[in-house]
Write a structure and sequence with these properties.
Helix content is about 25%, strand content about 25%. Strands 2-1-3-4-5 form a five-stranded mixed sheet. The longest helix has 12 residues.
């Protein structure tokens, strides 16, 4: 499947604008591409008690799963202080998000870390989460 990384990054940039991050100011957007070509976006949503905070990547995954989509090809992630503009650093998914992504993928999905649509790095999920615990681990 052809993956248009720039298109996916632009969707993540758009999703970042909806981030609710009044405590950290660190706004993250994600765009998740299914193997059928659909895109689900997500942003981070903070809570004053921190524990219930949800990351952008999981928001996108949960939106997709809630609509019956379980096969993912790629995810683009952009995050940094504020809602707009080029970020200073690449934002990788946290460990919890990596584990959630592994639940729905064999490790081959592309993970795109972006500062903007022209400055990005690409990894496979298995590079970011080697020796992951997956449904196959339960047999």
């Amino acid at each position: 499947m052809f993956i248009d990384s720039k298109k996916l990054i632009i969707k993540a940039i758009e999703a970042r604008k909806f981030s609710y991050a009044p405590y950290s100011g660190f706004c993250v957007g994600a765009a998740l591409l299914t193997k059928t070509g659909e895109i689900f976006t997500g942003c981070n949503v903070e809570s004053a008690s921190y524990s219930p905070t949800n990351c952008a990547e999981r928001t996108a995954v949960f939106k997709a799963v809630s609509e019956g989509k379980l096969d993912f090809a790629a995810i683009a992630i952009i995050g940094g202080k504020g809602h707009e503009g080029k970020t200073e650093n690449y934002t990788a998914p946290c460990g919890v998000c990596r584990q959630v992504l592994a639940e729905f993928n064999d490790g081959s999905m592309k993970v795109i870390l972006a500062k903007d649509e022209n400055d990005f790095k690409e990894y496979s999920l298995s590079e970011l989460l080697p020796l992951s615990f997956t449904p196959k681990s339960l047999v």
